[in-house]
Design a protein that fits this description.
With 749 residues, the chain is of the alpha/beta class. It is built from 18 helices and 15 strands. Among the domains are: 252 residues, Kinesin motor domain (Kinesin, 3-Layer(aba) Sandwich); 59 residues. It is elongated. Bound molecules: adenosine-5'-triphosphate. The site of adenosine-5'-triphosphate (ATP) has 12 residues, from helix 2.
């Protein structure tokens, strides 16, 4: 987002109360006006009596919010000497004698940042500060430790005190930075990972050369030159302020001016430079890490949604109840005839509207039911009803239905039934042949499964015609018998067969639930579930490793830039030390009178050199540490990369296997349909036998029992086929989503 550099002007209170003023500021119109009537429009024209707190609150709060959102911010203070630049940024000092209300922008900013971050416990953060000075185009590290980590406001204030004591006095530039890395998961389950830097720059007064370079850059930007074409590296100051002018920071420039008439010319210079800065636009962006915006919560995050649905459903039910109660009440009131005509009309209108709504809702319900039937799986197969023993109620209903239209209908029905039977027989014969020709070699027969202990009805020895367990005798062909045997062999395990035999011996119905359980065992192979589970687990691990690898790359990157910074610092330090040593050697050639003075200076310089050497040592140590860390991180990253490749292969393999299992499931679904059709035909034939053949009571009873058993088996097969179909649907949706995940992975990899 393009944000123009913002300008504030602060007037330093006059030294003497009765001294005359040549500059005035109007905080209402935000105009600074000179004695001669020249006006300067700024964003904040701060009055002479503006307190430190007022100054901070008038423009720093939006900057703090911006900083915590992950944007870089900058405050640059400039003006002639002794106009209160350092006072504005830091305050009068950090000794005990100084009151808290005199604190400048930097300590207030630090207090506010720690306060705000502590109010957001969900955010993890790391805060670092640096305090640099640019002395004669050389960098001087005020704290002597590069980046300094501060865990709380007390620690930060200790460093402020230390830096305040250690800083170089004189006309030089000071740059204080606060950088924060934050990580938090927002309520919508998204990971936020941001990094922002706030820089506070106290510029030297003219005629510092760096300041002229900065002025030139400001003029170039104002002339419309794109930042990319501007040479920021011409000096250390301009390189350090790259982001503040024409860069990514949200910048406030504070012009500190004196209202005294003798400073008038310098004040005009400062105000003119302020106006130039006003025309600069910075491109402010949120600094995101690569893992920013990644979803963190999994399916659990969907729970609130489910809750909402539940609440909605509950509210709807309650609402319907309320409306029907009201309807009853209105009807009663209408009947009591105690209402005026207008009220009756109103109530009638209400009842009419309610009836209209009911109509619409009932229409919808019809559609819903239809959908529900579709969702429940395959429609049930209509079956020929077994002619049962005539009961009294049947006789009654027969006599009642004896009408002409019924007769026509029955005639038509019989015609269609005949046609259906023919077609069905044909189909059955075809399928029978096909089935027997294509029965898989792994189709195990009962005798193979349980040795000699096989179902008496279903053994091939019983091809004397009938399934003798249930009904000895005629009607089934050898092929049909074989077929039924195979169907039973596929569907029922040896244990169930035993129970069936026992139940038959005792002439009791086998437990249908048991058959169902056995069938379930057969079709509900846990293999698919297992593979899916394994795939999901591997996938989860893979994603975690990917996140870790990205994090490591980021860390390596930031360590490398830290390393670069430190190396630059070392070079600058070494240069400074050699300059200082050179300046010392010059004193050797001086006269004796000067020599005493020179030796005193030398002692100071020596101390200075020692201090710098100690700093240099610390930097070098830090460099070694960072190098070691980078090596360690790179090793870990390499191992992770290898693991990621292996995991990817494993995922591909698992996905292929699951496709295999899916194919097998499709195949077994077809088998189920096929077996049900076969059982239907056998059942039809048996029912026909029962109707047409003359047989003894005992035989009839056994035949009925056989039909009943076959029906139960068919029922179980049918239910399991529905369940398998349903599972296939779920599996399909799962594998589809996996396909989309896979293609996504492919693109992100
Ligand atoms: N608004 C103010 N209210 C009270 N005292 C002030 C104000 N501004 C400056 N002072 C005082 O004026 C003196 C000079 O201020 P300061 O050192 O901040 O100026 P400066 O512009 O940073 O000077 P230099 O360019 O020499 O670094 C200090 O003693 C400071 O406390």
């Amino acid at each position: 987002m393009d944000i123009p550099v913002q300008i504030a002007v602060r007037l330093k209170p006059p030294n003497l109360e009765d001294s005359s003023q040549c500059i005035f500021s109007n905080p209402v119109t935000q105009i600074v006006i000179t004695e001669s009537g020249q006006t300067f429009h700024v964003n904040r024209a701060l009055p002479v009596d503006c307190t430190q707190a007022n100054l901070f609150n008038s423009f720093m709060i939006p900057q703090i919010n911006c900083f915590l959102d992950g944007c870089d911010t900058s405050v640059v203070v400039f003006g002639q000497a002794k106009t209160g630049k350092t006072y504005t940024l830091f305050g009068p000092g950090f000794e005990c004698i100084h009151s808290e209300c005199d604190q400048g922008i930097v300590p207030r900013f630090l207090s506010e940042i720690f306060h705000k971050l502590n109010q957001m416990p969900e955010r993890e953060f790391i805060l670092h500060i640096t305090w640099m000075q640019v002395v004669n185009n050389n960098i001087f590290d005020v704290l002597g430790a590069g980046l300094v980590r501060c865990c709380n406001v007390e620690e930060a204030f200790q460093y402020l005190q230390l830096g305040w004591r250690q800083r170089c006095q004189g006309n030089n530039h000071t740059v204080f930075t606060v950088s924060v890395e934050q990580k938090w998961v927002s309520t919508n389950g998204v990971l936020n990972h941001r990094m922002s830097t706030a820089s506070f720059c106290d510029l030297a007064a003219y005629p510092e050369p760096g300041l002229f370079a900065l002025e030139n850059i400001i003029k170039e930007l104002l002339a419309g030159n794109p930042p990319k074409q501007i040479n920021y590296d011409q000096c250390i100051l301009t390189a350090m302020l790259r982001d503040s002018f024409g860069g990514r920071a949200f910048t406030w420039v504070i012009g500190c001016i004196s209202a005294e008439p003798e400073d008038y010319q310098d004040t005009l210079k400062t105000l003119n430079l302020c106006l130039c800065c006003r025309g600069i636009k910075n491109f402010v962006t949120v600094n995101l890490f690569a893992d920013n915006n990644t979803p963190v919560y999994t399916e659990k995050s969907m729970l609130p949604h489910a809750d909402n649905n539940f609440n909605l459903q509950f509210a709807t039910t309650q609402w319907i109840k309320l409306v029907s109660n009201a309807e009853g009440l209105f009807n009663k009131i209408l009947q009591s005839k105690s209402l005026s005509e207008a009220d009756i009309n109103q109530v009638s209108e209400w009842l009419f509207l309610k009836a209209e709504c009911d109509e619409c809702l009932n229409g919808d319900t019809g559609v819903d039911n239809k959908d529900a039937n579709i969702k429940q799986g395959l429609p049930r197969i209509a079956e020929d009803t077994e002619p049962s023993e005539p009961s009294e109620s049947d006789v009654d209903s027969d006599s009642e239905e004896d009408t002409h239209s019924d007769t026509v209908f029955q005639d038509k029905l019989e015609k269609f039934m005949e046609y259906f039977r023919e077609k069905n027989d044909q189909l059955f014969a075809d399928r029978c042949e096909e089935y027997l020709n294509h029965v898989d070699s792994d189709d195990i027969t009962i005798s193979e499964l349980s040795g000699s202990q096989s179902l008496p009805v279903m053994t091939s020895q019983s091809n004397s015609g009938r399934r003798r367990t249930i009904q000895p005798g005629e009607s089934l062909s050898g092929a049909e018998l074989e077929l039924l045997r195979k169907v039973a062999a596929k569907a029922i395990s040896p244990e169930s067969q035993k129970i069936l035999i026992e139940s038959h011996k005792k002439d009791v119905d086998p437990e249908p639930k048991l058959i169902e359980r056995e069938l379930l065992k057969m079709i509900d192979t846990p293999k698919t579930d297992e593979i899916c589970k394994k795939y999901k687990m591997t996938k989860e691990k893979y994603t975690q490793k990917q996140i870790l690898a990205r994090k490591l790359s980021k860390e390596i990157g930031s360590s490398q830039s830290q390393l670069k910074e430190l190396i630059n610092l070392c070079i600058a330090k070494e240069r400074l030390i050699s300059d200082l040593s050179k300046s010392m050697s010059h004193t050797q050639n001086k006269h004796y009178s000067d020599k005493i003075e020179s030796s005193l200076i030398d002692q100071d310089t020596m101390r200075e050199i020692k201090r710098h050497e100690t700093n240099l040592k610390t930097y070098k140590k830090q460099i070694e540490q960072i190098k070691r860390q980078i090596k360690k991180d790179e090793k870990r990253k390499n191992t992770l990369d290898v693991e990621l490749v292996k995991d990817k292969l494993k995922l591909d393999e698992l996905s292929d296997t699951s496709v295999d299992v899916k194919d097998r499931k499709t195949h077994s679904l077809k088998h189920f349909t096929h077996r049900i059709t076969q059982l239907d035909s056998i059942l039809k034939e048996k029912t026909n036998d029962l109707e047409t053949l003359e047989m003894s009571k005992e035989k009839e009873l056994l035949l009925r029992k056989e039909i009943k058993n076959l029906r139960k088996t068919r029922e179980c097969l049918h239910e399991q086929r529905c369940s398998l179909g349903h599972k296939r649907k779920i599996y399909k949706s799962l594998s589809d989503s996996e396909v989309s995940i896979k293609s996504f992975d492919f693109h992100t990899l």
